[in-house]
Each structure stands twice: as C-alpha cells, then as structure tokens.
Amino acid sequence: MKFRYLGNSGLKISEITYGNWLTHGSQVENDQAVRCVRAALDAGITTFDTADVYANTAAETVLGNALASERRESVEIFTKVYFPTGPGGPNDTGLSRKHILESIEGSLRRLRTDHVDLYQAHRFDYETPLEETMQAFADVVRQGKALYIGVSEWTAEQLKEGHALAKDLGVQLISNQPQYSMLWRVIEDQVVPMSEALGISQIVWSPVAQGILTGKYKAGGKLPEGSRATDEKGGADMIKRFLEPKTLRAVQKLKPIAEGLDLTMAQLAVAWVLQNPNVASAIIGASRPEQVTDNAQASGVTLDQDTLAAIDKALGKIPETDPSLTKSPARRLT
C-alpha cells in the first residue's frame, strides 16, 4: 500500500480508503462488514471514511466497533456532517453551529474515539452563513475533536471561500470529497485547478462508478443478483444513470486494456483516478472481503500515456464532464 500527503498538510493517508456508504448498517450484515474492515487492514489500508447519515448513524457504529481493537494512532478515521440524522427535526440537518457541535459528539461516541482525523462538511449549506459553519469547524479542531477539516462536493468558488475563512481562523481545510471516475469527470475543469492552487486534495468516491466499471453489467443483460443495481435501499437509485446501453457497451471495451496490464477492470478503474496528482486517495466500498483485497491492489499502479489514451478512445464521449454538475442540494433535506 502506498501513501500520499493529504492537501498541504503533514497527514499521510493510504492511497486506498475504505468507505462504508451503502454497506455497513444497511446492505451488509455487521459480521460481514467487520470482515471487510479486517480485509482492508490486512491489505495495508489505514484510512477509513464514513458519515453520520450512512444508515442513519448505524454505519459509524459498525466502523467504530470494527476498529476498536486497533491502535488509534495507526489509523485515520474520517466522518462527515450535513444530511439529516435522528428523527429529522428542524436542527437535525445542515451546517449550523448547533448541528455541527452536536453531531461531532454523536459521531465520536459511535466511532468509539475521542477525535477524528478529518471532519468534513458533507455538502455546502446555502442556508447557513459560511462564516458560522467555518467558525464551528474551527472550534471542533481547537477542542481536539478533529485534527483537520474537509468538505465534499463543493464547487471551486465554494472551496476558495471556505479555504480563506479557515485560514483566517487558523485551521486547515485540506480536502474535498467528490465523485470521480472514468465516467464522471466533472471536477477536472474547475475543482481540481482551484484545489491545486489552494493546497487541497481530492478523496474521491465511486471510482468504479457504482460497480459499472467492473464490467459485470452487460447491455441488454440481466442485472447481476445481489448487485448494487438490485439494492432497493439506495444503491439502485445511484447506479441507474450509468446503466445506459451505450455506456455499458463502451465499458466492455476497457476489458482488453485491463487484461493487457494483468489487472481486473476494477483495479484499472481505481488506478485511473490515482493517476491524477490532485487525488490523494480513492474510496472503495465492498460487500465482500475479497472485493477489498482485489481493489487495494490498484495502489502503486502506474498507467502510461498510451494506456490513458486507449481508455479515452474506448469511452469516447460517454464520460460526463460538465462542471455545473458539482453542486449541493438547493435546500436542506428535512
């Protein structure tokens, strides 16, 4: 496992992050989830990402229990705040001072730790003054409950404004967590250049495009049993945009490229996002331990320019590149 610095900081994280969105506490039984975490640790992964909203806080509990026997200093634990949790009351969502300061307490309790390494704004909150949000995050850092702060799915301009406020408050905003894959490249035009200028890294989610880039979905074929596309708890909604026949046919053209490099298609997809120097880590999820072991082998893989060009040729105009698709919900969900 290789490691990279996260943003303009001294924090090193594993190139592969294990994330438990759509799995722990919902799609995957607890015992299996723990086995996935053990597989991640065995593969050399030290960085783990979750959020309070995942399975309405249950995912944090599962991760906390799975990591309880580990030396705290040997792992990096990330979580997030913004989306509704609990009963969904008027202050159970957003990035207000009240919600942030109350949410960090709940996350720490469920994760069984006295601090997280990175506390992230899960989306941008248009209804709370950014100054209030960043002051609350700064207070969380000063209280020792988070070491660094990050965000998720913020636009280039939002990153610029948030970074400036954080700097004025004496804290480090070092990361952004966007969706990024061969099929979803919307951060490349604006978010990545701004991040590079500010010293912010990307921790990218869905590098395998919800499983589409594994090649297991075939145009006109039956959806694989037990796959994310058949998961009615949320997975099916997320993956449906990639199930267009033309997309699936293009993805099949990647198979000979992967085989020529002695990689699985999933490994090729994860390695592809890691070729972007602004990407510090790729988040992988799994419902089975062997998926973790397989995907983790993408760390350290170098794809030459000919390979990258062949990937672009295979996919043609299929990848989404519109930077306006980096956005947060217009209003809080309640």
Question: Could you outline the blueprint of secondary structure elements for this entry?
Answer:
Elements: E1 3-5, E2 12-14, E3 16-19, H1 30-42, E4 47-49, H2 58-67, E5 76-81, H3 97-111, E6 116-121, H4 130-142, E7 146-151, H5 156-168, E8 173-176, H6 191-198, E9 201-204, H7 235-239, H8 245-252, H9 255-260, H10 265-274, E10 279-284, H11 289-296, H12 305-315
Parallel strand pairs: 3-4, 3-10, 4-5, 5-6, 6-7, 7-8, 8-9, 9-10
Antiparallel strand pairs: 1-2
Helix pairs in contact: 1-2, 1-11, 2-3, 3-4, 4-5, 5-6
Question: Can you tag this structure with a few keywords?
Answer:
334 residues; TIM Barrel; eight-stranded parallel barrel; two-stranded antiparallel ribbon; oxidoreductase activity; Aldo/keto reductase; NADP_OxRdtase_dom
Describe the structure.
The protein is of the alpha/beta class and 334 residues long. The chain has one domain (3-325): TIM Barrel (Alpha-Beta Barrel), CATH 3.20.20. Helices cover 36% and strands 13% of the residues. The strands form two sheets. An eight-stranded parallel beta barrel has the order 3-4-5-6-7-8-9-10, surrounded by six helices. Strands 1-2 form a two-stranded antiparallel ribbon. β3 (16-19), α1 (30-42) and β4 (47-49) form a beta-alpha-beta unit. α1 (30-42) crosses α2 (58-67) and α5 (156-168) runs parallel beside α6 (191-198). The radius of gyration is 19 Å and the shape is globular. The relative contact order is 0.16. The model has no long low-confidence stretch (mean pLDDT 92).
